[in-house]
Design brief:
- This protein has about 130 residues and is an alpha+beta fold.
- The chain has a domain at about 50-115.
- It is built from one helix and three strands.
- It has one helix at about 25-70, and strands spanning about 75-85, 90-100, 100-110.
- It has a three-stranded antiparallel sheet, with helices on one face.
């Protein structure tokens, strides 16, 4: 059995011109194109995730402030992502216009916003 170091189809093939390394300009252009491609693939996902998290946090904050509206006079709610907020890193819910116009923290909604634990309602008085 004969041993071939090259494929039989390529036996005797000689390239016409040897290819040297790519030019620095072509390398830089290729790097920029690849970087733009990666950004174009990743950025829409990041923006969609942020938008969905913000709308979820706004809905959760509005529901929480509405539940507290029995005891607190607030004209609305505001949600904000904070790195160094009172509850740590994540979405923070604030009341707007409560306590004489101050902005007061109501609930920490977390990195992935969800509805906070419900505020327990006061038990009605029972006459015996």
């Amino acid at each position: 059995m004969a041993e071939y170091y090259d494929e039989p189809e390529l036996a005797g093939y000689e390239p016409h011109e040897p290819r040297g390394p790519r030019s620095p300009r072509r390398k830089r252009t290729l790097q920029i194109v690849v970087l733009l491609g990666i950004v174009a693939l990743v950025l829409p996902g990041i923006l969609t995730t942020y938008s969905l998290a913000k709308s979820t946090a706004q809905a959760a904050c509005a529901a929480t402030v509405a539940q507290l509206s029995r005891t607190v006079t607030a004209s609305g709610s505001r949600v904000q992502f904070e790195f160094f907020g009172p509850g740590g890193v994540g979405w923070q819910c604030y009341t707007v216009g409560a306590y004489g116009g101050d902005r007061m923290p109501v609930a920490m909604l977390g990195l992935i916003p969800s509805y906070p634990a419900p505020v327990p309602a006061e038990a009605p008085a029972v006459d015996s």
